Every structure is written in C-alpha cells, then in structure tokens.
Amino acid sequence: MSKLIIGLTGGIGSGKTTVADIFAEYDIDIIDADVVAREVVKPGTPALKQIAEYFGSEFILSDGNLDRGKLRDRIFSSPDDKQWLNSLLHPLIREAMNEQCLQAKSSYCFLVAPLLIENSIHKAVDKVLVVDVKPETQISRTTTRDNNTTEQVQKILDSQVDRDTRLAHADFIINNDDCSVDELKNQIELLHREFLKLVIEK
Ligand code: ATP
Known about the structure:
Elements: E1 4-9, H1 16-24, E2 29-32, H2 33-39, H3 46-55, H4 68-77, H5 79-103, E3 108-112, E4 127-132, H6 135-146, H7 150-159, H8 163-168, E5 172-175, H9 181-201
Parallel strand pairs: 1-3, 1-4, 2-3, 4-5
Helix pairs in contact: 4-5, 6-7
Bound molecules: adenosine-5'-triphosphate.
Adenosine-5'-triphosphate (ATP) binds at residues 10, 12-18, 114, 141-142, 145, 176, 179, 181, 184.
C-alpha cells in the first residue's frame, strides 16, 4: 500500500493525463477516476442493471455497454435523474477508488480526478496537486486535441470549479502554461523528489 495518496486535478485540457503519464515513468501507480467510473458500469455489473431498470433498456447499446451519450443528454436536462444517478454511482466509484489506492504498490500514488474538488474527493487524499493553465490555454489545447468548438469547451469549463477555487485547494501546483513538455518534465522531477521526501517523513 502506498504511504501517500496525491489527488491530481485540473480543469479540462489542463494537462492531467500528460502529467500523470510522466509520473508513471517513475513507476508511480496512477488511479484514474474516469477509468473507475467506466468500470463500475461495465456490462454485467449491478449498477448497469439498475440504470437499465430506472432509465429503460434503450440506454443500453446492442453490445451491452451503457449508452453514455444518451445518458449524458438525459441527466443534462433532468436534475432529478442526475441526482439519482450520482447517488447510485458516487459511492461505488469512491469504494472502487479506495480499493485501488489500497492495492497501489509504489511509495506514493496518484488519484487523477478532473472533478476532485467538485465531488469532494480531495477530502480522501493526503495532498492535492493542481495542474494549472489559463482558460485560453485550456480552450486552445482542447479544441486542437478533440476537434471541439470553443463554445463546447467553454461550456465544460463553466461546469467545473473556477481556477481560483481549484488553486485554493492546492498543496502543490504545476504551471503548464507557456511551458514545453521538457520544462514540464523538469517541474515533475522536482515534485517527484519532494513527494519521496514526504513519504520518508511520514
Ligand atoms: P481532460 O480534462 O480533457 O481529460 P487533461 O487535463 O488530461 O484533459 P491532456 O490531455 O493531458 O489534458 O492535455 C490536453 C492537450 O494539451 C493534449 O493534446 C496534450 O498533448 C497537450 N499538452 C499538455 N501539456 C502541454 C504542454 N506543456 N505543451 C503543449 N501541449 C501540451
């Protein structure tokens, strides 16, 4: 079991995956909340069965997987349904994340969660690392990566906590603006050493 769990977060397109991939090169275990969230509704899971019963079988694709797009549209227009879904999935996701953190073998590990603050997951980790960029950078990098429009990215940005709120929860900050991937690697190397020191002191 890792001695230190670090919550890694940042807004859309801030560079969480890029940062986590670099830490993984140091053999640090990475638990990804988005991956866990997909695992708890895999075909055959009790949660998927409950979703089909509540929303209808048309929310299940012919290959047995959840129709995420359809579900996203539904909960976007129905706060009650969103609340029902969250109360089903959040405890399951939390439990699965805890379990994976317990299984982590590296001296410290990361829990990567875009909505770490929004979903209060920051309370379950030892330290919070925020990948910080300007909103303009979030928009330009995400539109380049995903072929989304500025309006689509802005909408997601608006649904997340604002930059100042996120930074107020940070124990450590990576500045990923105007920074090459090599410069990012330098920041990460320094942080890696700092985290190892924290593990030794714990
Ligand atoms: P999401 O919230 O959408 O999952 P994310 O926070 O995981 O995104 P990444 O996918 O890591 O963000 O990065 C967004 C895009 O920006 C990617 O295409 C990535 O390659 C690019 N990127 C990240 N950091 C840098 C950098 N320092 N310089 C140039 N491009 C970068």
